[in-house]
From TrEMBL:
<dbReference type="InterPro" id="IPR018076">
    <property type="entry name" value="T2SS_GspF_dom"/>
</dbReference>
<feature type="domain" description="Type II secretion system protein GspF">
    <location>
        <begin position="3"/>
        <end position="65"/>
    </location>
</feature>
<dbReference type="Pfam" id="PF00482">
    <property type="entry name" value="T2SSF"/>
</dbReference>
<keyword id="KW-1133">Transmembrane helix</keyword>
<keyword id="KW-0812">Transmembrane</keyword>
<dbReference type="GO" id="GO:0005886">
    <property type="term" value="C:plasma membrane"/>
</dbReference>
<keyword id="KW-1003">Cell membrane</keyword>
<protein>
    <submittedName>
        <fullName>Type II/IV secretion system protein TadC, associated with Flp pilus assembly</fullName>
    </submittedName>
</protein>
<keyword id="KW-0472">Membrane</keyword>
<feature type="transmembrane region" description="Helical">
    <location>
        <begin position="50"/>
        <end position="73"/>
    </location>
</feature>
Length: 80
């Protein structure tokens, strides 16, 4: 917003057209917003690592190791 106000003040002082300057300002703001989105997207895998470890891996271990552990316990228990 401050850049917009500075742009308008400068255009008023110099008497230059506002159109090209506004287009350049809009392009700059769009590029900055895109850079922030890309930065946030780059940080996303790091932020998702902890929930994956806490919630997904124990379930995966139970699914993968569960049948084997069940078979071992049945064979050790003598009810096979």
């Amino acid at each position: 917003m401050l850049r917009f106000a500075n742009l308008m003040a400068q255009s008023s002082r110099t008497g230059a057209g506002v159109g090209p300057a506004l287009r350049a300002l809009a392009r700059d703001v769009k590029e900055e917003r895109l850079a922030r989105v890309r930065e946030a997207a780059a940080q996303l895998p790091v932020k998702l690592l902890f929930p994956m470890i806490v919630f997904i891996l124990p379930t995966l271990f139970a699914i993968v190791l569960g049948p084997g552990i069940y078979s071992i316990l049945r064979s050790l228990g003598g009810k096979g």
